[in-house]
Design goal:
With about 270 residues, this protein is α/β, with parallel strands linked by helices. It is about 40% helix and about 15% strand. The longest helix is centred in the middle third of the chain and has 29 residues.
Length: about 270
Amino acid sequence: MANNVFRLDGDVAIVTGALGRLGPVWVESLLDAGARVAAFDLPGALPSPGFQDLTDRVDAGWLQQVDCDITDRGSIEAALKRVVVDFERPTVLVNNAGVDQAPDTPSDRHTIDTLPVEIFRQMVDVNLTGTFLVTQVVGGLMADHGRGSVVNVGSMYASVSPDQRLYEHLSGTPPFLKIPSYGASKAAVVSLTKYFATLWGRQGVRVNALSPGGVLGEQDETFQQKYSARVPLGRMASPYDLKGPLLFLASSASSYVTGIDLRVDGGFTAW
């Protein structure tokens, strides 16, 4: 019976940025726990292989793709209205949508002195302002009805600065530079998490952040080795490593947990 606290039977969840790399991880976790899921992403966004696999095997009664631009309040309101009509009122929100920086674009690099402010602003607009707008609209509905769990996807770089030595092996001029706007925007998301947790706690809405470390993907072998050597557990995260922490925060298993930043980083930030 104790395992039932991790179930989400009867819940409706929204995942933003659902068609990207990590989006399908959150979506699949929620589906497996019994929730119906509305997958928000930009109109015309191409699904990742992971999301395409889900749509191929999950009935539309459980998973629906919904167009939504998280930087546009009107778009969010329209998407939420569709969720309420097609499913029901959402009780779980995973703010996953965000802009990161790929470490494999030598033709489009900048030094810190020449970094265009437009790049900085775009990350802040999507990662921070977009998270605020979705929380404002969807979380506000949850607060009005006295129940909900919001999980904001942060990053370990909300807590520590990037270790630029991890990227020194990458060729190209200028050298690859992990830019500051990603970590700065994610640190602000963690602060936003605490704000809404204290604002809505007595209205039955819990708000927490989940901050992953590096997730194994298409990184080059040298990066994987260097990164893993920097992690106490000695490896990068797998998608499976993220599923349990998400369900903990989304479900009643964490009914007395709000306002935290749960770092799922293999101990990276402990050093």
